[in-house]
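notes to self, project folder thing:

trying the whole complex as one job this time. last attempt i did each chain seperately and stitching them together was a nightmare. three parts in total, labels are on each line so i dont mix them up again. if this works i'll redo the older ones the same way
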Amino acid sequence: MSWTDERIDQLKAMWERGLTASQIADELGGVSRNAVIGKAHRLGLQSRPSPVKANEAPKKAAPPPRKPAPEAEAPKPAAPAQHASPVRTAPPAAPAPAPVAAAAETEAPKPQPRIISVGPGGFLRQGPGDQQAPIPPAPPRRLVPAKPSPEIAGKTSLLDLTERICKWPMGHPGEPDFHFCGEAVNPGFPYCVEHCGRAYQAQLPRGTRGPPPPLPFGGPRVR
DNA sequence: CCCTGATTCGC
DNA sequence: GCGAATCAGG
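result (full assembly):
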């Protein structure tokens, strides 16, 4: 697998949402956790609270001599390179510069969106209260009607669903051509007649059943 | 042991 | 640029 633009976008999104590298890795598929981390760093994504890096005070006096890097030492008398490592969680006590009295700290709950789960195709499910546009894309000067991707042109999208049209899913969520059946429903059911036949199976006597019919979504996703 | 992210370094 | 190997902490 290679890092296509699309996969990089997914990586960025998931990384910024706080998913672990492992989760991202197997959602993307075809890459290891290490690959994800490596890529994230190369992309400049960084400094998420790392379990192994809670403290960054001590010097790098002697990292384990795995590979003795040529030590070209430039003596630094007094300038502990305070690596500005922007950790969101707990910035250490910053020197209060402003003579202003104690800043009126009116709490900062920081409602970090919690990831409920990751759905097939890598889309992120949110909790009911977490509805917020996760992407702040560059505001276009003018809003133009969303142009459906060519794959989905003429297909029944989620927005097209009503109580009268068949909601049987075709393909996998998250894929560009994912859509719904769109036929007229069998009155009283969410699916058309054909898909009702797939969704509702008569219970046959034991032993007379054949192999189960294919599940919706085309069955378990293959990677 | 399991997990996590960070880092290194050969490719 | 990529990612396995490794490190280091929880």
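what i see at first glance: The helical segments of chain A are 5-17, 21-28, 33-42, 193-199.
need to look closer tmrw
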